[in-house]
User: What shape does this take?
Amino acid sequence: MGQPWSGPVKQGRLITFEGGEGAGKSTQTRRLVDWLAARGIDAVATREPGGAPGAERIRALLIEGAPDQWDARAEALLHFAARRAHLVETVWPALERGTWVVSDRFADSTMAYQGYGMGLDREMIVRLYDLTVGDFAPDLTLILDLPVAEGLARAAARGGADRYERMGSDFHERLRAGYLDIARRTPERCLVIDATGIADAVAQSVHQAVAERLVEDGRG
Ligand code: TMP
Assistant: This one.
């Protein structure tokens, strides 16, 4: 096979941003890569679904079209197929080179959106994770949290609402609560960051968290 099955021999670190719509994940992803570079840490920004050529094609299948066009299990499988391509082609090779990876979304999005949001059996999502990702997880996950109405308003201001943005506020409330539950269950990996402030303030909390958890503990 020649492919890593349970993840790479890791030298870099994987940091993931999670959260609902309009939380500012892509801005914070870019800013964190710049902040790491300023500290002499080579880092790349990437995203899910996507982050590799095949995965970007799967992304188009997922974010366009009617909100109910996929059954939740088919949708989760597509996200994990894209994730596997992203890991094999982009994330794992970078970590092996010693490059840090900052990803705008990763597997917690499947648990929050397809699990808590759409009601797919969460144990099934854990099994899909084991099959496609194996014994590998982000070093740090930053969950950008803000009230649903505020996030959806910010996302709407960007224009061109995608399939998930059109799913209704009950769905978005369930996934926000889901993210907070994920953070409660895995505090060693996840940190909730208040994303209601301006981007500079959020970035400051992000950088402080990364400095405390990864850069200053001797592993960076
Ligand atoms: P984006 O809005 O961050 O660009 O991501 C595209 C959408 O895909 C977003 O609304 C969340 C959704 N999504 C899932 O439903 N499950 C997943 O596993 C991932 C990675 C994203």
Residues 21, 48-49, 63, 79, 104-105, 109-110, 113-114, 164 surround thymidine-5'-phosphate (CB under 6 Å). The mean pLDDT is 92.
